[in-house]
Amino acid sequence: MVTKHQIKLIKSLTQKKYRQQLGLFAVEGIKGIEEFLNSDFKLQNLYTTQPIFDAPKQLVTDISEAELKKISSLKNPNTALAVFNIPKAKDIDREELIIALDDVRDPGNLGTIIRLCDWYGVKDLVCSANTVDCYNPKVVQATMGSLTRVNITYLNLEEFISATNTDVFGTFMNGENIYKTELPSTGIVVLGNEANGISDSIKVKVDRQLTIPQYGESKNTESLNVANATAIVLSEFRRRLIEK
Amino acid sequence: MVTKHQIKLIKSLTQKKYRQQLGLFAVEGIKGIEEFLNSDFKLQNLYTTQPIFDAPKQLVTDISEAELKKISSLKNPNTALAVFNIPKAKDIDREELIIALDDVRDPGNLGTIIRLCDWYGVKDLVCSANTVDCYNPKVVQATMGSLTRVNITYLNLEEFISATNTDVFGTFMNGENIYKTELPSTGIVVLGNEANGISDSIKVKVDRQLTIPQYGESKNTESLNVANATAIVLSEFRRRLIEK
User: Fold this and answer.
1) Which CATH architecture has domain B4-85?
2) Chain A residues touching B220 at Cβ < 8 A
3) What top-level branch of life does the organism fall under (chains A, B) (predicted)?
4) Which residues of A touch B177 (CB under 8 A)?
């Protein structure tokens, strides 16, 4: 059974303010919860309609389908909801390839960018303070567990870039053709906001402007979606590793 | 002024059934509407709070902000809503690179895939009958006008592939490393459903299974988002063009 107090607490976790106050966030669905249970994340409570999880008994609450509906933020809740502690971000490894997000606002975009980092072995994702929170339920859902394997740090992006002695890359309309240029295995790659791209204060800190060239006759496409641009840029950086 | 009858008609266009019955769909926002006005698409009606569009006067209705809210499917409506005719799909050019979607269900994914086709000069996108409708308002919104430059045909994907004499590519977990293999400038590239990938009946028709390799230690990422996979695959096909 789930108490009124618990329902209120869990529902409050859809808001960033309460996630930060409480240091907690929610994960829904069997696969996602299993990924977090098998990671370093610390379980606080697991509410489930089926006794299928490998979790400490004192943290598990059996609930009904109707109760699950009350606590879920999904249209079609799936079996269980778990509350985990938000971990402290680990130290950033500045000797590796780092992805930096400059005010990415869409939860779906952030979620799929986290999956891309995981796929391409990028350990550190750094985000400007105005980037959407990675513990937002829509982000957690979209990451499909990759959130457990990528170290995400929210920080002042300008200060971070200034304090890090490495190449800084960004995507622009008139930069070097990304297919033809040499790319190193380390550096910071900045991706910008969905509507405005990379902000001026960050742009001046970019050492190398890269461009994904357009093909075909029209060349009218305004821009690529930021997650798709991240996919192509990461693909190009990592492709160089096997060609060496 | 917008009549009750018009409000009912416009609101009905959020449903595929009515879009198909009426042969109409809606576009919202200044930029999107301008792209459609500058294309082959035929305008039916334009409802606007500002007289800023280059459109035949008899098709333009001035409305208030309150009226715009009544007809819009957006949380924050932007200036105008236009109703256009759904055009007949043009003939498919089988001598070019074709993207084929096998039951892609998410409107955001289809929208960004249409943008990718436009960016990379892919003229024909073919979709299985169960792929989300490209005139769904969320798809139209996500395409940012690219819908006017990509020819989209809904068809029986099995029959289309069988009837087309070209290489058929698909992405799988254990295929050829896409970075190392030769890729032609023509062919059909199949991308699968978000949850289930490429269906068995299509899989048997794929001549060349491609794999986007994972990097890093974990290699636990289950899969890439289908739009991101499309981005990487298209990037690889088009990269070969400049290297020749």
Assistant:
1) 2-Layer Sandwich (3.30)
2) 118, 145, 149
3) Bacteria
4) 242
